[in-house]
Write the structure tokens for this entry.
Amino acid sequence: MIGDPRYREPVRSLRCERAREWLSLRLDDEISEIERLLLRRHLGRCTECTAFAESVQAVTDVLREADQQVPQCDFGIETPTPSRAWLRLRLGFALVVVAAGFGALAGFLTSGAEGPGPVEIPPQIAVLPPPAIPEEPELPEPPVPEPGEEPIAPV
Ligand SMILES: [Zn+2]
């Protein structure tokens, strides 16, 4: 009985509590190296935790080696299936969304065919003169061969 002075709940130390958490992590291969070393050290000194570790490891091994069982009986748990009306409503909503998307796409494409409206040019840009293009320097006239001479071949 709880409250009976003759009954004493076994009190484990905090080290034992922590060691049992590490045991669980070790079973799932999620323990760090430092935790593994500390656990090994604790198990070397604590017979209760060593017995617990062997027991938990044995149960875990049996469970992992056992075939996964598929229940043969029906537990009567039904997954709710949506009603036909609800499916029709969802289908209708999806069609509206698709139609709106196509409408937006068509509007975008046809507005591009007409071209954008007239572009307002700010006055400070409109009054700027075109950039000056430097004129080509005048090249000397090529020598005209005198009649009777051979023309000079271009180099
Ligand atoms: Zn312990």
Remarks:
- The mean pLDDT is 79.
- Residues 16, 19, 42, 46, 48-49 surround zinc ion (CB under 6 Å).
